[in-house]
Amino acid sequence: MTVDQARQVLVVVLNHEKFKMADPGMSIDGPWRGDEEGTLYRPGYVDFGLVYSNRKANTSNVLGHFAVNVFTGDVWNTVRCKRYTFAGLSKIQTIISARTGKKLANAKVAFDEVGCF
Questions:
Q1: Element (H, E) at 65
Q2: Which of 18, 26, 82, 92 has the fewest other C-beta atoms within 10 Å?
Q3: Please, what is the average pLDDT of the chain?
Q4: Residues 97-110, buried b or exposed e (16+ Cβ, 10 A)?
């Protein structure tokens, strides 16, 4: 999956979670890069931040950090260690998995990949 596709999957999740993505103050920061040029921050995942900027007050708030698995479409809130699951996302993940040949990891393996304890 490309970075743009990972961002699209994340937008599906954020809309499902009732974030007002149409608000002009909302923006997705990232993808975050690894230390080496051309690498991802977290191997196998594309990481993003969700930011709300209030231009009138000249303030910004980080609303969350998220990781999207490039092989399965698995989406995590990496601060809360929350894995997102809902019917619309499952349909997208089935399509991604069919293309990559990879299945969603079980909770323990996925927790370890994301860095949750």
A1: strand 59-69
A2: 18
A3: 91
A4: beeeebebbeeeeb
Domain that holds residue 80: 3-114
pLDDT at 36: 79
Question: For the whole model, what pTM was predicted?
Answer: 0.90
- Tell whether the torsion through CA atoms of 18, 22, 26 and 30 is positive or negative: positive
Longest dimension (CA), the chain: 47
- The CATH number covering residue 86 comes to 3.10.450.170
Any idea what the Cα angle at residue 58 is, between residues 50 and 53, rounded to 5°?
15
73 confidence band (pLDDT: 50, 70, 90): very high
Question: What is the token pair recorded at 71?
Answer: 């092989």
